[in-house]
Amino acid sequence: MKYVVIGSSAAGVNGVRTLRKYDPSAEIVLISKDRDIYSRCILHAYLGGIRTKERLCFVEPDFETLYNVKWMKGREAVGLNREGKYVILENGDLVSYDKLLIATGSHTFVPPIPGLKGARNYIGFRNIDDIEELKEVAKTCHNIVVLGSGLVGIDCMCGFLDLGVRVTLVDFAGWPLNKQLDPRAAQTYIDKFASEGIDQHYGVGVDHLDQDEDGFITHVYLTDGTCLPCDFFVITAGVRSNVEFLKDSGLELSKFGLIYDPTGKTNDPDIYGAGDVSGTSPIWPVAVKEGMIAASNMAGVPAKMTDFFASKSTMSFLGIHTMSLGFVNPPDDTYEVVTYEKGDVYKKIVHKDGVITGALLQGDLAYGGVLQQLIARKIDVRKVKKPLFEIDYSDFFHIDSGTSQFFYEE
């Protein structure tokens, strides 16, 4: 059996590891544009000087030997022939496969902002080359505007803060980390960012940019009329999946990216997908899990992704720890919301008909384990006659002393 994996980030690397675990004698080929393996979710630590480039690496020093994988570094996939079962590389080389894992990730989406085209002083925040440039930018620029306040945008901001550089955050969303937080939890971060000197503008878009005669952005104009001085513009507001090389392959694509089912399988039974290439769950833990699940199924060991895992996010910015589970902002008033606040601690549970659909923990994450079990097992919390934030394992489970396993008590 010959497996080919395209992409050397979270999904691809963990796919390789899983393939070797379940198929010790197989041939495995890893194709990647990158020449180094590094964690994109801690690029901000490299920007801020907290980690060296070597400490961004999340694989063993002898990764290639340990997993007996042929790594084709610095090579880009530009096409796919499903009938012939081979990947086409940028120089015309063909790499055959029996089963293929596509984990090509994503790239920064550059929005069509008037005044941006042709500008010389803007960049995304997606790869090591971006960070190398931003490390130099931090030495000379004093008015850096970051577009986007999602996980990547806040990471970028924190990286600059570690260098003593204050930036301006702009986002069309009404609050930072709006996919993971509600307004109350977000306000804690807003206040903390402000205390660190971060200028923040939420609920507004960028109307247009001014360039000087040399092609450098000088000002950012927001949709509310605000004018921001700008000597460098960082775009973190969106990504697009790296699926351009698949456009003539016949693989099913959505407007977001590659389509695959919870086992990782695409519409071709010998081709699987994992990670950011789907365009639907751009967070590191999901990419890791999807890579492992896809590879497991490729090797004939059944596994399946759950919606629960895909909606979990744990974050810590400027010493504020938060866990977000499921959907924390209820779509309508048919959901019940229970909150708890004391000092720096904020907790929230959203449920419908007794089944928890989302939860937030900020300042104290100790209840996270119980919440994850309640959400994952869709347990009806109405069956316990005690405060919702005081439920423990004993309320729903008993332990089999012979196996030390938990069993749900109906």
Low-confidence segments, ≥5 residues, pLDDT <50?
399-410
User: Number of helix segments?
Assistant: 9
- State the helical fraction: 10-25%
Note the gap between the termini: 45 Å
| Beta-strand share of residues | 25-35%
Which structural class matches the secondary elements?
A: alpha/beta
Task: Please give the radius of gyration in angstroms.
Answer: 23 Å
Shape: globular
- The average pLDDT is 91
Topology, number of strands: 25
User: Reading side by side through the largest sheet, how are the strands ordered?
Assistant: 3-2-1-7-18
Write the layout of secondary structure elements.
Blueprint: E1 2-6, H1 10-22, E2 27-31, H2 43-47, H3 63-66, E3 69-72, E4 77-81, E5 86-89, E6 94-96, E7 99-102, E8 106-108, E9 122-123, H4 128-140, E10 144-147, H5 151-162, E11 167-171, H6 183-195, E12 199-202, E13 206-211, E14 217-222, E15 227-229, E16 232-235, E17 239-241, E18 271-273, H7 284-298, H8 307-310, E19 312-317, E20 320-326, E21 336-342, E22 345-352, E23 355-362, H9 368-376, E24 397-400, E25 405-408
Parallel strand pairs: 1-2, 1-7, 2-3, 7-18, 9-16, 10-11, 10-16, 11-12
Antiparallel strand pairs: 4-5, 5-6, 8-17, 13-14, 14-15, 19-20, 20-23, 21-22, 22-23, 24-25
Helix pairs in contact: 1-7
